[in-house]
Design the sequence.
């Protein structure tokens, strides 16, 4: 049997890959076609083909990738390297990645790269690799596998290659949660090749060649390990494109930013929402022959830490609306009193006539009285509309009523939206479901029709055929995370309708002087006039619609603007294909073009109002320049929204990682080295399986907080050494003593995780089942330092320690297991198996957030409950300590670092030892 000519086969397959198939593959992988051509990608009739070569460039085998994503290899060949044709021309270090798709992703950023065939290489592959790269610098890129195999493979390859080349070889990992290099680059289309190399350089680990005796030299040759890096360094917000806004609005944003000393993002977002508020349901915008955006509603959630002057920013931007309402308050009060008086008179007359009609002795008399009763009831005046351009903290029921009262449209502009988000999350519903129906209908312009609004005994129906709502909620990042982490809000489409932002905080840089200039009167007056003109026009249209039954005014894009919108919409659609950067965010991407059209219409109304031609808004098309402005803002909004979602999703992993460090810091003597079994036995919140544990530890290892130890023999347990910084009170989201340039970049994540100084219980409420147990790290207490040091003998010290333990240890975190919500009783009741006696799906009952002043507690129907059933007594019971012994609680608290040890010899009769309590 003749030997196959792999070079000829590779060339034949390469020729068979036409442009159409190449484009399909490029879109699926999220890479450039030119990069696929560089690695000689082909088509063998059934699957995509990728040749692998030896050190001479000869093809020795061909890998396969089917349309389904399945992979294979042509029989008879041997595994080699994926070497792009332009490797010699590419500058910089050579990234050694796994597989052809990662090579194509790297080449799409013009990064030198070679592909290996697996997580570890044999001797022949290593020899080939060393020959291909010659003397160039090498960086092995691993993968963030949950079981750690990707990291181990990269480290092993680097060690073996260092031994072969007799010089150090480094390995690195892409940022978590991305699994490999291609996933990172396709998720972040804007990252440049230089930025990729710079990040990988910060994560590198050097593997040194062995000494003369064959043993590997320790990294750093015995020097102290480098300081670990803080969490979240790569998450920074892009600046809002203020300069593209029309000048009246851009000038307002700059003035508010200067006077209040906030990032321009916040006033810009509030300003666009204010335009949406005054436009209401009086306008819509046609984007094509077949589609019209039914309203100009805009939903925005802006996460900002405490002290960010949220209220001051909102008041400056929305001041004209507040002034408008104030000027009409007196007139409204008089109308309301007159209407109430007339209502009482005519209601009473109508009721009296109806009673007389029921008692009439003839049909003619009955008909006459009923007619007079109906005429009297018809004279009951309508309820006057209060001058309320917007509301703040509001329930869904009250918002529905306010929408109808305000002619079908209102706005929610809230500078402290914690209560509002609680309402949306359904915290006060018995079933715990989200209350987003009114928001979905108002954004889509769907008929709003609800019965029994409110808690009254009588039925009440409110409805409107054309609702619209504007929403801008400023809130602390922990509450924003709680909103983002609700999967039902994502599935319903509510979150996809929202712009999410977390502007940089200026807290700590807002130094005052005595010569600050006030806001420019002309700028503020121009902005106020724009809002009032549009708002008055809105009421003119709404009032006419209620009389004549007309529909909203339809705005239209110009021909050039329509062409630009079409290109934008088709671009977003293409990027949602499998393997492209927006494939995982299709709900957000599919609505981006519509959101841009709404914003373009709002900017058009602002321009018409500024030119005092608001009545001509429908007859003058929306210009291409305004569309470009709206598109630029929407591109920013989509990028920022996805950044916030990724950042808050990563925060879940960081919170679990912080749990591990906090738990280790409580006992430096015995927890400086950790094993997977010991960590799992600790039942830390959110770390209940080994894959999840390994994922957390991989993140800590990548950041330098732990170092994985080599395993001896067949030992299955994994061991890590904790960095000494973890025992010094250093918080993992703050720079260590050796950090310099990176320290400024960590400010955003510090605000996010700590709430800029907020108590840990604010972070804990992000997720009751995964609350952070990091009191020592957050409080900055030293390793193992007791939390309370009151004078010996005082009973309130024990009480304070118990309260502190309850605060730091949510009951569901102590219980673990699979708890599920069963009712809303007493703040929410949860059932699950009992961790003490085992078994049963609903044997255990827990109340993690009681509605009363009671503390969180749990009880088991089978075995009863230990002590009071709070977090402390459950922790003692599950630890195996005999809770019936005198002083069990105090001794346990002392072990955990919440109490000072007590002498057994009291100084006086009124002082008691812990065992006596």
Sequence:
């Amino acid at each position: 049997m003749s030997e196959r000519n792999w070079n000829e086969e590779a060339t034949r397959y390469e020729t068979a890959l036409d442009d159409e198939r190449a484009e399909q593959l490029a879109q699926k992988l999220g890479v450039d076609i030119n990069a696929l051509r560089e690695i000689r990608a082909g088509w063998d009739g059934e699957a995509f083909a990728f040749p692998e070569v030896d050190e001479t460039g000869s093809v020795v085998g061909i890998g396969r990738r089917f349309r389904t994503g399945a992979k294979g290899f042509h029989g008879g060949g041997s595994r080699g390297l994926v070497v792009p044709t332009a490797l010699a021309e590419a500058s910089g270090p050579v990234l050694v990645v796994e597989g052809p798709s990662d090579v194509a992703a790297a080449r799409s950023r013009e990064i030198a790269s070679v592909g290996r065939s697996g997580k570890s290489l044999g001797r022949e592959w290593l020899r080939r690799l060393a020959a291909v790269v010659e003397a160039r610098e090498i960086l092995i890129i691993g993968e963030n596998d949950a079981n750690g195999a990707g990291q181990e493979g990269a480290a092993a390859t680097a060690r073996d290659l260092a031994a072969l080349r007799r010089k150090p070889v480094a390995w690195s990992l892409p940022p978590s949660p991305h699994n490999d290099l291609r996933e990172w680059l396709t998720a972040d289309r804007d990252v440049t090749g230089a930025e990729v190399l710079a990040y990988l350089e910060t994560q590198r680990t050097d593997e040194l060649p062995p000494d003369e005796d064959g043993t590997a030299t320790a990294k750093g040759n015995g020097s102290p390990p480098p300081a670990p890096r803080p969490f979240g360094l790569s998450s920074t917000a892009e600046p809002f494109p203020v300069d593209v806004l029309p000048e009246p609005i851009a000038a307002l944003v700059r003035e508010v930013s200067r006077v209040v000393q906030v990032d321009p993002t916040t006033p810009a977002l509030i300003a666009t929402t204010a335009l949406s508020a005054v436009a209401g349901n009086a306008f819509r915008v046609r984007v094509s022959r077949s589609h019209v955006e039914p309203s100009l509603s805009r939903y925005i959630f802006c996460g900002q830490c405490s002290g960010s002057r949220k209220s001051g920013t909102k008041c400056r931007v929305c001041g004209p609306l507040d002034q408008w309402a104030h000027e009409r308050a007196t007139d409204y009060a008089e109308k309301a009193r007159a209407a109430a008086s007339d209502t009482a008179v005519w209601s009473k007359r109508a009721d009296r006539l109806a009673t007389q009609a029921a008692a009439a002795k003839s049909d003619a008399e009955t008909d006459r009285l009923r007619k007079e009763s109906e005429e009297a009831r018809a004279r009951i005046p309508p309820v006057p509309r209060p001058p309320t351009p917007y509301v703040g903290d509001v329930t869904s029921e009250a918002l529905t009523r306010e929408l109808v009262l305000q002619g079908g449209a209102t706005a929610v502009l809230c500078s402290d939206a914690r209560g509002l988000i609680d309402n949306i999350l359904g915290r006060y519903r018995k079933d715990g479901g989200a209350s987003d129906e009114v928001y979905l209908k108002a954004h889509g312009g769907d008929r709003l029709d609800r019965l029994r609004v409110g808690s009254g005994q009588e039925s009440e129906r409110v409805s409107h055929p054309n609702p619209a709502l504007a929403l801008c909620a400023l809130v602390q990042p922990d509450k924003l995370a709680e909103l983002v982490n609700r999967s039902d809000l994502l599935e319903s489409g509510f979150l996809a309708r929202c712009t999410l932002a977390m502007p940089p905080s200026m807290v700590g840089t807002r130094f005052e002087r005595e010569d600050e200039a006030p806001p420019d009167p002309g700028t503020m007056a121009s902005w106020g006039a724009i809002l009032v003109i549009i708002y008055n026009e809105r009421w003119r249209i709404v009032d006419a619609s209620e009389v004549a039954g007309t529909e909203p005014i339809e705005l239209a894009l110009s021909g050039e603007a329509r062409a630009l919108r079409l290109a934008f919409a088709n671009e977003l659609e293409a990027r949602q294909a499998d393997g492209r950067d927006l494939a995982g965010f299709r709900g957000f991407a599919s609505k981006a073009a519509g959101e841009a059209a709404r914003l373009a219409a709002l900017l058009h109304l602002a321009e018409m109002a500024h030119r005092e031609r608001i009545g001509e808004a429908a007859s003058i098309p929306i210009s291409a320049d305004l569309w470009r402005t709206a598109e630029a803002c929407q591109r920013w909004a989509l990028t920022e929204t996805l950044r916030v979602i990724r950042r808050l999703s990563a925060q879940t992993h960081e919170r679990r990682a912080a749990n591990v460090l906090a738990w280790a810091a409580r006992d430096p003597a015995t927890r400086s080295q950790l094993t997977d079994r010991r960590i799992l036995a600790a039942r830390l919140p959110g770390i209940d399986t080994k894959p999840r544990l390994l994922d957390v530890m991989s993140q800590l290892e990548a950041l330098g907080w732990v170092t994985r130890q080599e395993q001896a023999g067949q030992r299955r347990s994994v061991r890590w050494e904790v960095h000494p910084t973890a025992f010094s009170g250093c918080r993992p989201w703050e720079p260590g003593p050796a950090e310099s340039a990176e320290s400024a970049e960590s400010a955003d994540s510090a605000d996010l995780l700590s709430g800029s100084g907020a108590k840990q219980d604010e972070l804990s409420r992000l997720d009751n089942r995964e609350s952070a147990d990091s009191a020592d790290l957050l409080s900055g207490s030293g390793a193992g330092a007791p939390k309370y040091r009151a004078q010996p003998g005082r009973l309130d010290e024990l009480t304070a320690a118990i309260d502190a333990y309850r605060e730091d240890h949510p009951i569901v975190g102590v219980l673990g297991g699979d708890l599920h919500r069963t009712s809303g009783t007493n703040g929410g009741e949860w059932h699950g198996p009992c961790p003490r006696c085992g078994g049963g799906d609903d044997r255990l009952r827990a109340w993690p957030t009681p509605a009363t002043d009671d503390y969180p507690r749990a009880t088991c129907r089978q075995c009863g409950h230990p002590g009071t059933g709070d977090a402390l007594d459950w922790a003692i019971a599950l630890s195996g300590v005999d809770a019936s012994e005198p002083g069990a609680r105090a001794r346990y608290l002392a072990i955990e670092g919440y109490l000072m040890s007590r002498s057994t010899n009291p100084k006086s009769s009124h002082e008691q030892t812990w065992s006596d309590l």
